[in-house]
């Protein structure tokens, strides 16, 4: 049986290659270039049809900075317009400013990146199509992940609050509120984006996030290339620029026909327990494919968690109405107050904002990867594919 020949040792070789030898792999840099070439060579060495899919993207920091500059300008402008021309003019100005801030990414310079695709065709007719993927880029080190969290919560609140105050100002004659908010809003916006302005340009070696996922994609590809599933085509993908806002998976999901399902592997090398991501988001909740999750959980002992503020590459596929989920892992730690608050008021089940302690840091190194997690992930993926094969 194919699953017996899954070699965790090969996974560790890939992880060492990606996170030690190549090291940091920020999208559109020398590191990510080397990583994509390495992955393509591996696919080719297993006899897969391998190719690059190129795409453009705007990097996250540039996008955040330009939005913040525009919005601070809007708040200050609104303050003076309020004083001299009244609240209606000010509101129109603010609405226009929000529009510019929204569309600004389309005008910013783009960077180039690529997905690496390896296709394994069956010897028989194709009746099923499966996609197995993991992102290969690594993230900038966040100075205290709480800042990013704070930003993600505070940013939309500032925008909504300002709009609400402006409307109150016009209809209830509360001009003072608008002026007050403009004066407070501008520095507040600046403060809550501080880490983005004073970024040390450190990039994580990304052993867990996500050389671990890529290593399993590669090893599963090798195993299955030796004994392909009947009637099933598998596309193995290493996504670029996930940390810049799921850019690679977005591009791929726009080019591909709907598969039978997409399984994403992200950050499963360290942590106490492998788990399925049940969904993401707080106000707009996005659930992963329930049936697929159930199938995976029937076979192995897995947790299921809700990831309120994280993005995963399955989201790009869910947006296109395709069946998708992510296998990840979780460290056992007390839920924080925000987790409990979200569970209570937004009816999220098993919410965990922080699931890994070394994520997006210089400490995300191969020593933290557990053999057990790698072994188990390999068999979960191969078992799932075997169930699918039996059904054809
Ligand atoms: Zn990741």
TrEMBL record:
The GO terms this record gives for MF are: metalloexopeptidase activity
Q: Which InterPro entries match?
A: M28_fam (IPR045175), Peptidase_M28 (IPR007484)
Q: Which residues cross the membrane?
A: 68-85, 91-108, 149-172, 178-199
* Keyword vocabulary terms for this entry: Membrane, Transmembrane, Transmembrane helix
> What is an annotated GO biological process for this record, any one?
proteolysis
The reply to whether Transmembrane helix figures as a keyword in the UniProt entry is yes
Q: Where do the Peptidase M28 domain residues begin and end?
A: 204-383
Record keywords: Membrane included? Answer: yes
Name the coiled-coil region(s).
none
Taxonomic superkingdom: Archaea
* PANTHER family reported in the protein's UniProt record: METALLOPEPTIDASE M28 FAMILY MEMBER, PEPTIDASE M28 DOMAIN-CONTAINING PROTEIN
Annotated protein name in UniProt: Peptidase M28 domain-containing protein
Q: What organism is listed for this UniProt entry?
A: candidate division MSBL1 archaeon SCGC-AAA382F02
